[in-house]
């Protein structure tokens, strides 16, 4: 009776579907898989015409989690594959007796390909020759503090970061608008904070002005780019 129960248990384990282990994927998995698509871009002749690929990442917390995902998924998928290998080895003899074949031969292959891409993404994140993380912030004390923490975390992860873009800066004006004057003083205080911050002061500071239109579309992007990269 005990032997029958063990055989039944092994048979059920042998039917384990790897997809079921990923029914509740970790937060940020979608972003990680999207970024892994970059590897396909880099390896495809179709995209040789492009000199740069730009990703507009999510807010700081999501971005830091995203940067750690390749390591997490590499380890997690490795464990899943090892588990499946052990289960397969334990049940292969029993399956052969019952004449039951494994009907999901490519599940492990798909996970292995995903793991390999994650390894390449991890290497890409840290490649100083081909990758640069540009921090974009706004001139407020809270945003600057968050950017400082982000910069420290990026350096800890060995992600190359050299430049900091401060967006929505009010240009000087002779207007006597009190609100505008107070707002600009606050922004200048935030810029001074950047210059004195141990994490951010070493980055190249690039200032982007507040404009009277939504930055969307190639012409407007070129317009703003000419201002920032002048």
From TrEMBL:
InterPro entries the record matches: ArsA/GET3_ATPase-like, ATPase_ArsA/GET3, P-loop_NTPase
Phylogenetic classification of the source organism: Eukaryota, Viridiplantae, Streptophyta, Embryophyta, Tracheophyta
Record-level GO BP terms: tail-anchored membrane protein insertion into ER membrane
UniProt xrefs under PANTHER family: ARSENICAL PUMP-DRIVING ATPASE ARSENITE-TRANSLOCATING ATPASE (PTHR10803), ATPASE GET3B (PTHR10803:SF0)
Protein name as it appears in the record: ArsA/GET3 Anion-transporting ATPase-like domain-containing protein
One GO cellular component term: GET complex
Pfam families: ArsA_ATPase
Residue ranges annotated for the ArsA/GET3 Anion-transporting ATPase-like domain, each copy included: 27-228
GO molecular function (one): ATP hydrolysis activity
Transmembrane segments: none
